[in-house]
Amino acid sequence: MAAIASAPASFLQAMTSVKRAFNFSAGPGVLPEEVVQQCQQDLWSIDGTGIGIMEHSHRGKTFDKVLADAESACRKIANVPSNYKILFVTGGATTQNEMVPKNLLGADQAAAFLTTGYWAEKTFEECKAHFPKSYEAWDGRATKHTFCPSDSELTWGEKPGYVHYCSNNTIYGTQFRHADGSFRYPSVPWNDVPVVCDMSSDIYSRPLDISKFGLIYAGAQKNVGVAGTTLIIIREDLLDLHKKLNKKLFTMETYATHAKGESRHNTPPAFPIYVSGLVFKWILSQGGLAAMHQRNMEKAAIIYKAIDAGFYKGHARSDSRSAMNILFKCPTPELDDKFIAEALKNGMDQLKGHRSTGGVRASVYNAMPKAGCEAIAQFMTDFAKRNG
Ligand code: PMP
Asked: Residue 94: CB within 6 Å of ligand 1?
């Protein structure tokens, strides 16, 4: 990323003189520092145009390049096959709870769900309200979403229009994974049923085979950018499936519209797309997904080791531990509060668990440096000694 030295030095110095905390937020999450610094430059003037990225027309040459670069870097990272479209849409991952069934399900059809967490519950419930034959091939509520099911634990009903699951459960800290942390694809008994995956909290954190999916979606604000755009990777034959299903949808509701308009049928979230483009280039510059995965496994292991030392209790069953969101509790809720408050004083922020789980949650997305994981693990050890 070549920096453009046209912003006044005082402007840049003021921005970078503040010490940054280790940000363990579950999302919006930490961004790579190089990306934030590039944004600072390009907010002022991008590509020597004298116009900042947020002020450029979404139909001009400058944004043409931003969009094309973002798309091509996104494609390169995961070798996205040529029969898949990459789209940047709005409305967050939550809007996909509506768009997916609207586009992929016929009026009387069911979709099948693997309910492994809070967001997966919401996705199922919304679909069920509109497509009542939809069902859960797995329901993890009774076991408090402590793990992701094995293939033999899935109970399939009628052949669904699609199967939906969430690869990483942000709130419960579980992930579909093999022992080495690599991607685990639940097996589906029908070859011709598209698999839809919510990858909001682990997209591009480890290698994956795009061809296993019909549609992948991810809110950008954790691993691939900032809030405001949702990345969609969709197989081309699904773009206008709604037509084959004889459904009449509004223009903005169809994937076909966004594909035809190349993510700018209307004014797109230009700045978030630009940031995603920088993050994609950063991932490539770091060595791509294999390197990301190795680093993420090392980082997560540092924190899990501190959990396994005894004082803390982790939430996830060990075979489903997420490398992205790490949940643990101190022996009492009062100690959780004390932990979070003292960690903050030590430069570690956003550690409070979600209201549905309580405890502590350390989110360690791609951009969290190893030093952040070492700092919290050291703090955990010291805190345990002082309070054990
Ligand atoms: N799915 C998952 C796995 C998430 O973590 C989140 C947000 N934290 C969502 C969906 C909802 O995303 P959004 O706020 O972008 O709608």
From this structure: yes
